[in-house]
What we know:
Elements: E1 8-9, E2 22-24, E3 27-29, H1 38-41, E4 55-62, E5 66-77, E6 89-96, E7 106-115, E8 122-128, E9 137-140, E10 145-147, E11 150-158, H2 165-174, E12 190-199, E13 211-218
Antiparallel strand pairs: 1-7, 2-3, 4-5, 5-12, 6-7, 6-13, 7-8, 8-9, 10-11, 11-12
Amino acid sequence: MKNVTGALLFVGLALVATPIALLVPARVLPAADHLEPALRVSAAFDTTPDRPADIADIYAWHTDTKLVVIVTFAGPQSITLPAVYDRDVLYGVHIGTGVPKSDATQDIYFRFGADTSNGASRQGIEVTGVPGVSGAIIGPVETTLQKDGVLVRAGLFDDPFFFDSAGLGMSRSSGTLMFNRNRDFFGGQNLTAVIIEIPRSRISTGANPVGIWSTAARFGGQL
């Protein structure tokens, strides 16, 4: 795989952060954040929901040689809709080698903009702060980018999260658990995701705890 470098056109970014999940060695503490906070990102409460800044989930796992982190956002949505790339949102992946998770030792940021590396304007991604990478990883979306042993890919994916939201509502109203494992609210829907694969040796020695969480910040505040 070949890394495609070029220039991305952005505007300034800053604002609110939302913690999502925590990873410790050999164990994942799962958490979902779809449509939260509802007053900002849910159409049920806001006629202009901020879908691009709505982090859905963060997934993280490791093998003997690599750490894989996936941040999903702007979902769930119909499979007829395209991926969401908003240049006014800054996403963060924060890695801490101790507890509490707020003690970040490594901050990775990514954002989107116009990629002009091949002379034509198309959607691109810039990833900065990756351990062991000199400078930024820059290139078009829907492409696997590689630099200094790190892989990055941004694109449209099937929403991997499973949950029976109808069962939750019925359980709340009845006081009896009414979940059905064959009923998945997120089934057949898409979202946008960024995948980052990093050599494990740059993050963990295999003995220290590792906390991983994600944030989203919008330039200019609420839509």
